[in-house]
Amino acid sequence: MLKVDVITLFPEMIEGAVSHGVLGQAVKSDLLSVKAHTPREFTEDKHRTVDDRPFGGGDGMIMLAEPLKKTIEKVQHNTSKVVYLSPQGRTLNAAIAKEFSKEEHLIFICGRYGGIDQRIINEYVDEELSIGDYVLSGGELGALVIIDALARFIPGVLGHGESAEKDSFSDGLLEQPNFTRPREFLGQDVPEVLVGGNHKVIGEWKDKVSALVTLKKRPDLFREYIKVETEKYNSLKKKKTAAP
Ligand SMILES: Nc1nonc1C(=O)NCC1CCCCC1
């Protein structure tokens, strides 16, 4: 079971978010463990200080190294992967989420204020990860986005028959449009093919429309998809001609 420890000044943000929906069910079913730890637990002064002014001046306070060190060392073991949420990291995508879902133990460090002491990054952080090119008020939402995205790749987390492999992006394409009752709404009908019951034809329709949606909304993804599929086709052809 993948164990996730989140180091944050606001544990309730994490605990609340992972106790609902698909994530809540996954935690309850012991498919995933998510625990939050505050560095404040490891302060010794009466004000429980976790930050201080930056050397060299500048705006914002920096999270102190000592409380972070003690928190990390409380949860860390030899198979832990330590990730610092920061706009300076590589940007999350479905492939990274899938990669992370295969880890045994993830420790997410959530910065606040102006960030954390660089020596913690130098000593403990295996990689920095970003959820996008913008600055948030803390790393917690980044940690939650990654936890939500990776959880879908853990077997059993999604319902029977559902799979993250069929999610948008997982096969490199956006998802086709979805419909449910009623058959007609606001003068718009559900595509006839979806109510015809022919699963082969429905599957072909979904694949075709998924490619068209991607071409229209994300031509960059579509080009990458065509490149990957062409490479797959060519290597298959090469194998066939090479085989005796
Ligand atoms: N973007 C992001 N992706 O993941 N995290 C992000 C972020 O903007 N985090 C804010 C943190 C960054 C360290 C200093 C305190 C604020």
Task: Describe the secondary-structure layout.
Elements: E1 2-7, H1 11-17, H2 21-28, E2 32-37, E3 51-52, E4 62-63, H3 65-75, E5 80-91, H4 94-101, E6 105-109, H5 118-124, E7 127-130, H6 140-151, E8 184-185, E9 188-189, H7 199-217, H8 219-242
Parallel strand pairs: 1-2, 1-6, 5-6, 5-7
Antiparallel strand pairs: 3-4, 8-9
Helix pairs in contact: 3-5, 4-6, 7-8
The protein binds 4-amino-N-(cyclohexylmethyl)-1,2,5-oxadiazole-3-carboxamide (4GY).
Would you write up a description of this structure?
The protein has eight helices and nine strands. With 244 residues, it is of the alpha/beta class. The strands form three sheets. It has a five-stranded parallel sheet, sandwiched between helices. A two-stranded antiparallel ribbon has the order 3-4. Strand 8 and strand 9 (188-189) form a beta hairpin. The chain is elongated. The two termini are 44 Å apart. The relative contact order is 0.13. The mean pLDDT is 96. It binds 4-amino-N-(cyclohexylmethyl)-1,2,5-oxadiazole-3-carboxamide.
Overall number of strands = 9
The small molecules bound here are:
4-amino-N-(cyclohexylmethyl)-1,2,5-oxadiazole-3-carboxamide
Overall, the morphology is elongated
Described by strand count, sense and barrel closure, the largest sheet is: 5 strands, parallel
Jot down its keywords:
244 residues; five-stranded parallel beta sheet; elongated; alpha/beta
Q: Gist?
A:
The chain has eight helices and nine strands.
